[in-house]
Amino acid sequence: MGRVYQRVLLKLSGEALMGELNYGIDPIVVEQIAQQLADLIADGVEVAVVVGGGNIFRGVKGAAAGMDRATADYIGMIATVMNAMTLQDSLERMGVQTRVQTAIAMQEVAEPYIRRRAIRHLEKKRVVIFGAGSGNPFFTTDTTAALRAAEINAEVIFKATKVDGIYDSDPHLNPDAKRYNSLTYGHVLTHDLRVMDSTAIALCKDNNIPIIVFDLSVPGNIRRAVLGENVGTIVGGFCEVS
Hints:
alpha/beta; 8 helices; 11 strands
């Protein structure tokens, strides 16, 4: 099967980097993710990554505990940069050129986000990791993923999760839950399926960017998704239940 996508954006949650830990970063998990990205670069795919920070600090929880919401969100943005630098280190130890670009200036450790520079890095087959979210409080890293994907003309967003797609109900609670093979943007918004937040879904709909939701824990799933194999649920098509 030939490669379907040439330029992709991978959305990684901070929790994905924890593995089985209760907090922080599991170096083994980071290395496994980096190896899959290295394989894509070897195949000639242009790869961008947006990483969350929930394994270190989540702004919503900080606000719920009494913190000012904007302050809590800024702390969460800094947490995403820690994750981005960790993934960068793992990739570069594998010989993959990587650039971290942040929406908040941190010139000693990363480049500022500049759209044209990011695209040029991708054209040179460097992995570009976007940190610090969008640089604005009250916006999630899901929305950042949709925004950056539109800005760099990515063909697809890969949303890496702990389940193998989108279900009509929680598969952990309902053994009869049915998995969707594909969904429309409207169905996701209308039924509040919480694949990504509503702002991110609307951005993807407006810019016709498909979202593929799949299980990150299965080795090789990122590459399978890029090759067009059925590894999860596609948002952007029509409604089809498996």
